[in-house]
Amino acid sequence: MHSRHLGKSSFSGIQAKRAAIDDDAMAAAMEGGASEQELEDLQEDMTLPRYVTDPLEQQEYRDAWTASGVTYIFQNAGQHPGGDPPSYPQQAG
Fold first, then answer.
1. What's residue 48's pLDDT?
2. 70: how many CB neighbours lie within 10 A of its CB?
3. N or C: which end of the chain has fewer CB within 10 A?
4. How many CB atoms neighbour CB 57 within 10 A?
């Protein structure tokens, strides 16, 4: 949330930065006959935690974080059925 935001928010459509896909590793997996599920898992393994282990991705993440004015986020680590981005039922009232 932004440093001047005092309330709380449910899903707003804003997501944390994700790391880039390693094109060479993805191409090698495709050429090696990886299944669609394996490719999906590989992509997720690259885009979600790669900014922790790759120094360039980490610097880009830190730069984006600093420039955004955000002080914290809630990041869902699970997979959402039915869409990307997920759609949530509207809260009544």
1. 81
2. 15
3. C
4. 20
Contact 80, 63 (CB under 8 A): no
pLDDT confidence tier of residue 92, bands split at 50, 70 and 90: very low
Residue bearing tokens 């680590």: 77
d(CA 92, CA 64): 35
Compute the distance between CA of residue 64 and CA of residue 37 in angstroms, rounded to an integer.
30
SS3 sequence of the chain: CECCCCCCCCCCCCCCCCCCCCHHHHHHHHHCCCCHHHHHHHHHHHHCCHHHHCHHHHHHHHHHHHHHCECCCCCCCCCCCCCCCCCCCCCCC
Other C-beta atoms closer than 10 Å to the C-beta of 67 total 8
Q: How far apart are CA 14 and CA 17, in angstroms?
A: 9
pLDDT at 17: 72
The Cα–Cα gap between 21 and 10 comes to 28
